[in-house]
Predict the structure.
Amino acid sequence: MRGDERLANQLRDVTITRNYIKHAEGSALIEVGNTRVLCTATVEEKVPPFLRGAGQGWITAEYSMLPRATEQRTQREATRGKLGGRTMEIQRLIGRSLRAILDLKDLGERTLWIDCDVIQADGGTRTASITGAFVAVVDALTNLRKRGTLQKAPIRDYLAATSVGMVNDEMLLDLRYKEDSIASVDMNIVMTGSKRLVEVQGTGESATFSRQQLNEMVDLAETGILQLIALQTEVLGDISSVMKKQA
Amino acid sequence: MRGDERLANQLRDVTITRNYIKHAEGSALIEVGNTRVLCTATVEEKVPPFLRGAGQGWITAEYSMLPRATEQRTQREATRGKLGGRTMEIQRLIGRSLRAILDLKDLGERTLWIDCDVIQADGGTRTASITGAFVAVVDALTNLRKRGTLQKAPIRDYLAATSVGMVNDEMLLDLRYKEDSIASVDMNIVMTGSKRLVEVQGTGESATFSRQQLNEMVDLAETGILQLIALQTEVLGDISSVMKKQA
Amino acid sequence: MRGDERLANQLRDVTITRNYIKHAEGSALIEVGNTRVLCTATVEEKVPPFLRGAGQGWITAEYSMLPRATEQRTQREATRGKLGGRTMEIQRLIGRSLRAILDLKDLGERTLWIDCDVIQADGGTRTASITGAFVAVVDALTNLRKRGTLQKAPIRDYLAATSVGMVNDEMLLDLRYKEDSIASVDMNIVMTGSKRLVEVQGTGESATFSRQQLNEMVDLAETGILQLIALQTEVLGDISSVMKKQA
Amino acid sequence: MRGDERLANQLRDVTITRNYIKHAEGSALIEVGNTRVLCTATVEEKVPPFLRGAGQGWITAEYSMLPRATEQRTQREATRGKLGGRTMEIQRLIGRSLRAILDLKDLGERTLWIDCDVIQADGGTRTASITGAFVAVVDALTNLRKRGTLQKAPIRDYLAATSVGMVNDEMLLDLRYKEDSIASVDMNIVMTGSKRLVEVQGTGESATFSRQQLNEMVDLAETGILQLIALQTEVLGDISSVMKKQA
Amino acid sequence: MRGDERLANQLRDVTITRNYIKHAEGSALIEVGNTRVLCTATVEEKVPPFLRGAGQGWITAEYSMLPRATEQRTQREATRGKLGGRTMEIQRLIGRSLRAILDLKDLGERTLWIDCDVIQADGGTRTASITGAFVAVVDALTNLRKRGTLQKAPIRDYLAATSVGMVNDEMLLDLRYKEDSIASVDMNIVMTGSKRLVEVQGTGESATFSRQQLNEMVDLAETGILQLIALQTEVLGDISSVMKKQA
Amino acid sequence: MRGDERLANQLRDVTITRNYIKHAEGSALIEVGNTRVLCTATVEEKVPPFLRGAGQGWITAEYSMLPRATEQRTQREATRGKLGGRTMEIQRLIGRSLRAILDLKDLGERTLWIDCDVIQADGGTRTASITGAFVAVVDALTNLRKRGTLQKAPIRDYLAATSVGMVNDEMLLDLRYKEDSIASVDMNIVMTGSKRLVEVQGTGESATFSRQQLNEMVDLAETGILQLIALQTEVLGDISSVMKKQA
């Protein structure tokens, strides 16, 4: 049993609240245990300069934490005047993951801006961001479809993410901050509804890991991600207007 | 009747949720109509360099808006690499207002960091920040008192704020964004529980105003602020451990 | 009697030197006691992007202090790499105040850049900037009229500003730095020639103030501002080519 | 056969030149085909603030590309005034990878600064940086041992890295830029001499990948990394003074 | 005859006004034709970190232009967020030139901050800055001597500077902006009262120059600089308390 | 004899390796003793905004040092977020020097970007940059001529640079870092193949120099520069396709 009464292979309680923000084209508040991330999707009817005239769309993500999302107050990046390396890495990961399940040609010449703002942090903020952002994207695109401005269904598959780690030689699913901070190996996995891998990032900061552990960690992540996708499916209901038909 | 079914002299519905964030020493989510601001108070057991050894404390505030708090997505100041003038002006106002009702000597050699993050914006975010921050400060100081680290009650009085404006020649209390953006005169007033003025900021961007209008606007603001302070009183309950006895 | 032999309700000696800078379309050196501010007005024959095609002009202001304008040398903002909050607040105030008496449609599609550079500071630099900038603007617009490029008279009224404060329970007009730094309440008022208010900014940093004090402070400011406008009138002479006829 | 006459599972020619820079405590120029990275290791006899008094050392890495390392000239990050996300991600990866095989306690209270500067880029610059940096670190530590300032052997194992990718449905080892830019899946693997994984970063930007492909890609990377470590062993000769004895 | 009725070898009219700023330890407004530079010298009773405990002082200079010093308004470097290359080059030149005639050991462990702010520019602002800064430095040091805090006379010699250039194949002394902007060769010379060279910076942007021209330009500059030093001598009067006795 | 067995008037060994970088239109690695600078020339088929439609080209230079080019590791300017004054001064010097021997009209509407990156520093990096950049420029232009895109020969003359300094009252050619750091006078000279001066920058930081010394230093520099140009001539071979015929 873990500190929060979970089994090693158990996710935390997850809640997804759609349409949390009235102004955004799509928005979702995702809560994974005490981690709370507000995800919004904004539609901009143009593409960045490098894609002008290319007949396709773009999706880009920004990530930030409120100063008191963390146990100790974190200085604002706006006050420091620049983004830290961790922030940049996470926002690149979120954008890349969503691009993997989006058909940018079918999105048309528009940009989706994804904003993931961590209201409260307790581990797993980047994976919660991806899981929540998927819901916001679906809602934003559904709205476009309803308004008739989006011609096709641009989404190829569901998308969710979770973490796995080695803590005191035990393999744990969905790490809280307390577990994450003492994990010898830390892995973030992003996966689709059809169990295809999108990102595998396994890191041993002070330790290394074996091929067998790599495989077991991906196995464990998969069980968690399928539960997250089941929740997305339940929360979103029918999304056939934006999801491509599976062959 | 205004667009949202209010009378000219009527506040929007206001809700204050205490302890919204588990990590912060004090926190409050304040909702004024569709405006939602998350206020936290952080206690740091040291003072900035210019006050070292001065035998007193300090309070400072930071303010920010999430990108999709607004109708059109606003670029992050962290991405632009610097704070805008509006942000700086607002965070200076929040800090100054709270300093007016705090006895910094009785606070002791510690710093209160106030963070006001606008989750959703619909006018009046700076005044809602002040009203909500007061609650977060009370809770943070009450916690210090309970832990026995704070010797005295450092708060002199309640504190709240609201806006008043001239819209189409009518004087309105507590402007929504839609009203604020067409107001010819805009005034923000910060006031204490004993009706003392802390800040009066009246501005005519494209118009001017008379002495009589100044007076009437302050009168109208006072009625709103007293209601806000009644709500703070109700939400906070007994705060005698941190509030100085009134002479 | 105050330290510099003034009565409580007395302005410092004020001098305005027109055309101080040969390159600028309009310029004025304003001296208020030991405070010296160089104000220039630059005409640019285009408007910022957000006003393109809107058939109106714009006015914007920048404010800065030379490092040794102050008693202790102040670090340059150019060296620090960013503007401070105080600077931003002041330049927003100057721009907003001038916009209140300018008819931007009659200005035509051009931008007025106001630069207020404090050569020597002894309190009241922001209000001196406004009073001096008005003169520079009049001269710049008069030059445009002479050249025939400006079709109409775009100025609605005279504009000047001064400060009032509570120092040791006494209400003083036009504070020097020494007075300002110990004032419990500090107020800046911007007013037109017809006694209409443009900005009222009253602030109690460590104290609060009553409704009656608010009124008395505005009364006192008015007496000072009318003297400043009398001086502007004298210095400028006939400005009927740029000043709209009063109804 | 690939464009440069290699088999799918074949590394490019690799050369490592030790002591390329006379000033640095350790340095190596690594050439992997046309990719050329200059790696230096600098010893600083102090640790960053967060480790003061912790009785351990630190290692940190910086990465940069010369403007004409690339086919099109790339703007300098110094000229842009900030590091890009890709640079930050790579320097975090290099530092983390080296920390995994370094015993920071045995390093003592000193910092190793790793600089990886790409002189010419043709794909695989981050993995070449890791492979080359290992050699620079060994040389820097060997010098410390010779001077008698380093008490123990702080290295746990050899360390090298390479890339694998899916290009036109074929799995290729050690991608050139031309291959990398059209790869549907891209994986970077960092591994030790005893075949333990340090980092696995698999990314599908516009495609996804299966569990089986993940396994085969790690297999293929392993064959390449073992050849790189054989080269390191040959180039470095006896490193027993800095390498811990294997249990 | 030149446009302003000068001979080729004639300086513009030069005026130096001492003690222009009441707050500064030393200050001088120097006017060279239409060029006006305000120079101040600030004494700080500590040295920069790299000189702590070295038993000597330091002198450093900053240079800036007001936006409307120039014919076209120049954007503020504070607004752009960084100093331009020209500014950095000039402030390095001013500091270096003054260091050449100051005995830093005899200055004691203090820093002289020189600020040169161009109020109006018409060519030769960097050389006017040096000539004016010398006067401000003498006054600041004389004040230190009077207060008894400075033990010795730290100045070795007078210091002044001027420009020379080739314009339409004619060699001109002390270029105005109009001449400078079309000069094929431009030279700035800094020289002491005993005709020793401190800086010679000759530049042909679109042309080159011969050895003979180099010599003639330095000759011509010398005649101008000796006149400037005569003016400094007259303006400053007896400076024996800060000037070392000449051997 | 100097520390490295040179006579006072002797250059260090100089090697120039052409085409060091495969991607660049022109590139040269220049080694002057232990100083090693990689110079590249990039051709961009457009001009900066201020020259659009002016019927001429442009040349601009950037300069940087790798962190371990120096004996002590130097912090990266990209990490600090801004260029230092020394860097800006040097890149302005390199650009200006090359412009003096280039006919910008005959270059056509294109920009030459020169990058000088110091791999290892031992004094004289700015003069080595100029000497090496000339070779890279010739190669880049020769390539343009071969491709037929450049109509005329835009180079007017050879160009090289060296340093001279006063060290312990002795005049030395081509200073190493060890000599440069104790020189009382330091001079950089840029000269053409026909012995015309392009830049003369003589600086006495803590000392001054006489007219006679100025002349002797330029004489000595000339002997060195002619040797450098002889080497350029040998390395480059026939450059008549890009060099204008001498009258």
Summary: The CA atoms of residues 202 and 214 of chain E lie 8 Å apart. Residues 211-236 of chain E form the longest helix (26 residues).
